[in-house]
Design a protein that fits this description.
By secondary structure, the protein is an alpha+beta fold. It contains 10 helices and 17 strands. Helices cover 26% and strands 28% of the residues. Helix 1 (23-37) packs across helix 2 (50-62). Strand 7 (141-145) and strand 8 form a beta hairpin. Its EC number is 4.2.2.n1. Keywords: Cell wall biogenesis/degradation, Lyase. This is peptidoglycan lytic exotransglycosylase. It is an enzyme of class 4 (lyase).
Length: 369
Amino acid sequence: MDFDLQRVDFSGLPGWQDDNPLPLLAALKRCRNHVTTVKPHRTGSLGVSSADLMPAYEAAATVDIRTEDAARAFFEEHFAPFKIVRRDGKPGFVTAFYEPEVLVSATPDETFRFPFYRRPDDLIDVDDTNRPDGLDPYFAFGRLKDGVIGEYPDRKAIEQGFLAGRGLEIAYAKSKVDVFFAHVQGAARLVFPDGSMKRITYAAKTGHYFSATGKLLIERGKIDAASVSMQSIRQWLDDHPNETDEVLWHNRSFIFFREAEVDDTGLGPVAAAKVALEPGRSLAVDRLIHTFGVPFFISSDSLTSIDSGRPFRRLMLALDTGSAIVGPARGDLFTGSGDEAGRLAGGVRNDADFFIFVPKAAAARYDHG
């Protein structure tokens, strides 16, 4: 491993006594339900398993905790914190994501013209068992045509009509920029004219490499690197409609969605861990290293935009992952759903300290003094 775990006391967690981890108890219960009724989460290379977490899951499901102090005491009873220390000396790093709300229509018209698509029948999963010679090893999806697997058409081809007429449209938005940012986030709440709501979540993608629009605009001198955010990118796209297609098509990756009901408007979408995200308390991590359902305390002196100017100090639960989330101390914070959550998420690019909460029964495996 290219990192070490350094045992710390709870008193050594900056801001621990001021945090309120109460919302995480409900999320632990949802993890327990998935692990016991569906299947355990895959164990990351660090080795903390769903079985290790089960005593905390069971306790969360049986105890009645209603105060911040009692919630902190719960985590102090069941977990031991370790600081993740990268051997290259670099700090951890956090970004943030959210669930957009997009006004849509079930049918297209002159205003609502830009579709969200379901997964096409000719898009297949690709791995080492069926990958043809010449197909980039990065591609996890491909197109099956006449018995032959090849590269799937990209964003430009799809937006120019490749999928038209196949009945794959879920709903239609007013703006292709709205659709694009739902692709970036991997989920959205769709709000229909009658006020009804539907949720869409990631189902598959074309397989092409993701290319960051903000990075492109910075390289072209269109946006200042010091102030780049989701909001500044959106503003630039809104201000330059004649250049929008060319800029967005630079990101060849295209996302397909599946539909889901909004069972609880207070919770986020069901993400990679197959449980609903807890707004403001869910973290996307590198699942090759970490296991879903593990708590992480995140501390960032420079991230002050989320907690009213105060440094970010929060206990989070690992419930998602992402292609850009790579490394032991790399995380993506879920800020919630809607425009305000988007505002909070938009500018987060901050160094941070990561403290992983290891279940006490497993802590001895990682405690090297």
